[in-house]
Amino acid sequence: MKGQKKYAKDNCEVRNRYRNRKYLFNKQKALKYKGGCVVCGSTDDLVYHHLDPNEKVCNMALLFRSNWKKIKVELDKCIPMCVGLHDSLHRELKIFTNILKKNRYNLKIRKEKLGY
Ligand SMILES: [Zn+2]
């Protein structure tokens, strides 16, 4: 019983080590494939930003444990960015989206007033 438990634990550790190695390997490969941050060129703390959120199938960080073929398909929809800039991009996007929504709403009101 004791031995069995130890075996299961070792097995789990081996699997985790293998997964982590695969993750790091694919991350390196992605860096070579896409290059550094498109804005500042940094190669540290990169995230992959989906240019069209509708095309997003999976978060890249989760996908790095998958096979390269799947990773490449997803990477082709993304641009590399460092974490800090990616965060501010999404903050700005939210602001702009709200402004656009408000403008569209105002336009609708104006059209209604004018009787279009
Ligand atoms: Zn950057």
N-to-C CA distance: 80 Å
Q: Radius of gyration, rounded?
A: 22 Å
Number of helices: 4
| Percentage of residues in DSSP E strands | 5-15%
Structural summary, described in words:
It contains four helices and two strands; from the N terminus they run H-E-H-H-E-H. It is mainly alpha-helical and about 120 residues long. The chain has one domain (about 1-85). It is elongated. About 10% of the residues are buried. The structure holds zinc ion. Zinc ion binds near residues 37, 39 and 42.
How would you summarize the topology of this molecule?
Elements: H1 2-34, E1 46-50, H2 60-63, H3 68-75, E2 78-82, H4 83-114
This protein binds zinc ion.
Summarize the structure.
The chain is built from four helices and two strands. The chain is mostly helical.
Distinctive features:
mainly alpha, two-stranded antiparallel ribbon, 2 strands, binds zinc ion
